[in-house]
């Protein structure tokens, strides 16, 4: 699945953006309950490159680039090292706890390129969950509707109610929502971020819609669910099969007694993969951001770029790419 990469915006005035329908900040230290266990760990190096070209005849009056950074996210992943190619940046954090390197590129000369490279070494855990009885109280967090997660929409609300009929536990409900995405959505590499409500149309769905629909159905029933964007490590045959794209989205839900439990309805859309990606965090998922609409990204994914004024200069992101290498593959 592909997500829209970052966005570039041209402004003549400095605009301040806030999140739409943001919720409580993400819990920064998640620990495994007795119903979950780490069964394996993978080590990766990840390299990100962004190249910006000033195609105008003057430097910008102001230009800023925000790049979302891979960070520790227990119990899923741990970052062991991070190298940024320049020290001319400021670390900032958004309302979800996502971290960014903010670069001031106001001195970008006309006709020249500026390249930013970030390299990480990190480990990612494989986690298996034992769902048990799956009954009990749920926290009142990550349960509200927001942009692209329209859990109060009548169609989504009604579908969640219908799918919940006869389900004896929260786990049964969530499994019904997960199966609904796999059974009814048609995977389409659409490069858009339409959200949950759009899945009732005929535009096709990519990973953002698969994840958003399951989150919206869950939240409609008061089940906490949260959204991730990140990277998916794919083998060559998986790339050829079109299983997904490197830039990917998935979710987890909060289940009674168990805590946060990972789901990937996009990879689980085929019946043969259904069990593999339900209540199972596979170690080919690398989290970059959480939250459907982080304010720092201004509607983009992974990075956001602002510059002004646009009538005297033109800056283009000419190269944005990832390289992921599995260390000591078994």
Question: Structural class given helices, strands, pairing?
Answer: mainly beta
Describe the largest sheet. Answer: 5 strands, mixed
Q: How many structural domains can be distinguished in the coordinates?
A: 2
- Count of DSSP-assigned helices: 4
Q: What is the highest CATH level, the class of the largest domain?
A: Alpha Beta
Strand content: 35-45%
Major sheet: order of its strands? 1-13-3-6-5
The H-and-E topology, N to C, reads as EEEEEEEHHHEHEEEEEE
CATH architecture of the largest domain: Roll
- Gap between N and C termini: 25 Å
Radius of gyration: 20 Å
Number of strands: 14
Structural account:
With 330 residues, this protein is mainly beta. It has 2 domains: 7-125 and 295-327, no CATH class; 126-289, Roll (C8orf32 fold), CATH 3.10.620. The chain contains 4 helices and 14 strands. The protein has helices at residues 154-164, 170-184, 207-220, 236-241, and strands at residues 7-10, 36-54, 62-69, 77-84, 89-93, 99-104, 113-129, 225-232, 247-255, 259-263, 280-281, 285-290, 303-308, 315-327. The chain has a 5-stranded mixed beta sheet with strand order 1-13-3-6-5, with no helix packed on it. Strands 2, 4, 7, 11 and 14 form a 5-stranded antiparallel beta sheet that branches. α1 (154-164) packs across α3 and α2 packs antiparallel against α3. The longest helix has 15 residues, at 170-184. It is globular. The model is unreliable at 1-5 and 9-29 (pLDDT under 50).
Write the layout of secondary structure elements.
Layout: E1 7-10, E2 36-54, E3 62-69, E4 77-84, E5 89-93, E6 99-104, E7 113-129, H1 154-164, H2 170-184, H3 207-220, E8 225-232, H4 236-241, E9 247-255, E10 259-263, E11 280-281, E12 285-290, E13 303-308, E14 315-327
Parallel strand pairs: 1-13
Antiparallel strand pairs: 2-7, 2-14, 3-6, 3-13, 4-7, 5-6, 7-11, 8-9, 8-12, 9-10
Helix pairs in contact: 1-3, 2-3
């Amino acid at each position: 699945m592909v997500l829209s990469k970052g966005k570039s915006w041209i402004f003549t005035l400095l605009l301040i953006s806030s999140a739409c329908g943001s919720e409580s900040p993400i819990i920064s230290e998640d620990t495994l309950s007795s119903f979950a266990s780490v069964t394996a760990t993978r080590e990766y190096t990840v390299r990100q490159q962004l190249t910006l070209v000033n195609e105008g005849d003057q430097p910008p009056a102001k230009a800023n680039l925000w790049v979302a950074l891979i960070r520790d996210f227990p119990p899923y992943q741990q970052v062991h090292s991070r190298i940024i190619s320049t020290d001319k940046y400021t670390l900032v954090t958004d309302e979800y706890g996502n971290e960014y390197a903010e670069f001031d590129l106001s001195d970008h000369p006309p006709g020249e390129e500026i390249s930013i490279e970030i390299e990480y070494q990190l480990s990612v855990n494989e986690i298996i969950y034992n769902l048990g009885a799956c009954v009990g109280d749920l926290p009142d967090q990550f349960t509200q509707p927001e942009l692209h997660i329209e859990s109060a929409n009548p169609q989504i609300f009604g579908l969640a109610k219908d799918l919940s009929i006869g389900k004896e536990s929260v786990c049964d409900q969530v499994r019904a929502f997960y199966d609904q995405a796999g059974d009814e959505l048609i995977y389409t590499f659409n490069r858009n971020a339409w959200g949950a409500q759009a899945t009732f149309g005929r535009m096709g769905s990519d990973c953002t819609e698969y994840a958003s629909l399951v989150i919206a159905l869950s939240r409609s029933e008061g089940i906490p669910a949260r959204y991730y964007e990140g990277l998916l490590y794919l083998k060559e045959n998986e790339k050829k099969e079109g299983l997904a794209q490197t830039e990917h989205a998935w979710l987890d839900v909060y289940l009674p007694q168990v805590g946060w439990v990972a789901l990937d309805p996009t990879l689980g859309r085929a019946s043969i993969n259904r069990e593999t990606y339900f209540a199972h965090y596979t170690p080919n998922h690398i989290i970059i951001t959480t939250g459907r609409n982080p304010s720092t990204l201004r509607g983009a994914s992974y990075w956001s770029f602002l510059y002004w004024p646009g009538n005297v200069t033109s800056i283009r992101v000419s190269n944005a790419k990832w390289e992921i290498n599995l260390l000591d593959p078994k």
